[in-house]
Amino acid sequence: MTELPLDGITVVALEQAVAAPLATRQLGDLGARIIKIERVDGGDFARAYDTSVRGMASHFVWLNRGKESVALDVKSDEGSALLKELIARADVFVQNLAPGAAARLGLDAETLRAGHEELVVVDMSGYGSSGPYRDRKAYDLLVQSEAGLVSITGSPEAPAKTGVPTADIAAGMYAYSGILAALFRRMRTGTGAHLEVSMLDAVAEWMGHPLYLAAHTGQQPPRTGLSHPIIAPYDAYPTADGDEVLIGIQNDRGWVQLVTKVIDRPELAEDPEYATNVARVRNRALVDEAVAASTRQWDAEDLVRKLDAAGIASARVNSVRQLIEHPQLSERDRWRPVDTPVGSIDALLPPVTFADVEARMGAVPAHGEHTSAVLAELGRRGDEAGLRERGIVGP
Question: Would you give the DSSP letter of residue 159?
Fold first, then answer.
């Protein structure tokens, strides 16, 4: 069988919530061994976010498949020593504890890489290790707010957060790609790395278009709901069956196609109030009214067929249930069973598909499920009972 790209790589993760677990889960999907260090008293607090997956938390199930769970009191001297033994055997160490917590535990990069320079150490935080916000608590919505994301998301009447934890996901994705880059460099040079990833930096990068627009015009980009702030028509339009279809016109040629082949208003192709994108944005309300008057005549399915025939980009405004049942996912065989402590569930394959090997989608671990096995690897099988009695390991 073809090896996965990260077979043989070991990652120790002192992680919680979303950002770091997302990064390490993706490494695990690619073959890395992920040893997840959890608190003795309850583990990763994301385990308790909700009970929607047959009693398990949806965030935890999403982010923690294929990992080994070790319940360890890292604040104790014995627990700290065990963790450092594990890190000494690892290729990568990832942590997203509260600001300063890792350093207080002696888990700073300088200490860990002394005599182990091939180690890749990844420190994840809300705002970075310096600057006036260094010690602030940073949850996803707080960072979305600080980064200005909520100021451009929502309706003209009110800002809104994104429906997924964007700041956490952005940081997790940059940690993941940064680790891959560090491992590639290590392969060539033998030297590891110290990486720092902050949620604010990640979202600020994703704010590229509105950031540069505001910097060079002095204007705050407007909140436009589903419509596009600088392109028209680009919005969701009503249909006869009560659904909505999003239509995206990228250029003036597309506008001509729409008015001549779909909405049957050919006179708008050359009308100076509609003919160019600049004019259409200026007259957005009139443009949207003209398009909507036509789309209301057809059911959503019929409208999408007409748009497809005219070569015009469109999309159904789907619910999450419709995503789960999406024919594109089912026809491309994107779902796989994943074991959990509460039985098998379906999960999506990772977005990157290798032609010669499939991602390793391992089981979601129970809290502390692998503690005994990992202690045995460290030669501590005989000490396990005492460690449990003293609360060093658990549960």
Answer: B
Q: Going residue by residue through the chain, which has 395 residues, state the pLDDT in tens, using 9 for 90 and above.
A: 689 999 999 999 999 999 999 999 999 999 999 999 999 999 999 999 999 999 999 999 999 999 999 999 999 999 999 999 999 999 999 999 988 899 999 999 999 999 899 999 999 999 999 999 999 999 999 999 999 999 999 999 999 999 999 999 999 999 999 999 999 999 999 999 999 999 999 999 999 999 999 999 999 998 888 888 889 999 999 999 999 999 999 999 999 999 999 999 999 999 999 999 999 999 999 999 999 999 999 999 999 999 999 999 999 999 999 999 999 999 999 999 999 999 999 999 999 999 999 999 999 999 999 999 999 999 998 899 999 999 999 88
Measured distance CA(308)–CA(262) in Å, rounded: 10
Beta 67-72 vs 393-394: how paired, if at all?
antiparallel
pTM check: above 0.90: yes
Cis peptide before 233 (omega within 30 of 0): yes
Structure tokens at 195: 């990486």
Q: Tell whether the torsion through CA atoms of 257, 261, 263 and 265 is positive or negative.
A: positive
CA distance 351 to 363: 19
